[in-house]
């Protein structure tokens, strides 16, 4: 899913009357190596890209507003890692 990788705890105070703003510090693309998310930031992420280390949630881009290098979130991310699909291992690796 295209969206933003972040720490779910950063969004706990979010509401429509008081959105939480989180700086976006980069973007992760499919086929790239893993990135590391720094504290109190978010990273854009494309479908199939590896989720950055330290991120435990991905929020779809349709659920945020982007302004001045930040994403603004109006609802807490309550389902940390619910949208993640773990990397599959090869059959050969399973047999060894």
Walkthrough of the structure:
The protein has 96 residues and is mainly β. The chain has a single domain, classed as Molybdopterin biosynthesis moeA protein, domain 3 (Beta Complex), CATH 2.170.190.11. It has 1 helix and 6 strands; from the N terminus they run ββββββα. A 6-stranded mixed β-sheet has the order 4-1-3-2-6-5, with no helix packed on it. The longest helix is centred in the C-terminal third of the chain and has 5 residues, at 91-95.
Brief overview:
This protein has 96 residues and is mainly beta.
Total number of strands: 6
CATH class, please?
Answer: Mainly Beta
In N-to-C order, the SSE pattern is EEEEEEH
What's the story with the biggest beta sheet?
Answer: 6 strands, mixed
The portion of residues assigned to helices is: under 10%
Strand content bin: 25-35%
Gap from first CA to last CA: 32 Å
| Coarse structural class | mainly beta
The CATH homology group name? Molybdopterin biosynthesis moea protein, domain 3
**Number of spatially distinct domains:** 1
Annotated CATH architecture:
Beta Complex
- Arithmetic mean of pLDDT: 86
CATH topology: Molybdopterin biosynthesis moeA protein, domain 3
Radius of gyration: 14 Å
**Total helical segments:** 1
């Amino acid at each position: 899913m295209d969206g933003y990788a972040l720490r779910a705890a950063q969004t706990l105070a979010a509401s429509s009357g008081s959105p939480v703003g989180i700086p976006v510090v980069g973007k992760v693309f499919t086929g790239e190596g893993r990135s590391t998310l720094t504290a109190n930031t978010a990273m854009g992420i494309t479908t199939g890209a590896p989720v950055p280390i330290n991120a435990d949630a991905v929020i779809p881009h349709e659920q945020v507003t982007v302004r001045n290098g930040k994403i603004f979130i109006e609802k807490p991310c309550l389902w940390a890692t619910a949208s993640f699909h773990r990397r599959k291992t090869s059959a050969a690796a399973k047999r060894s």
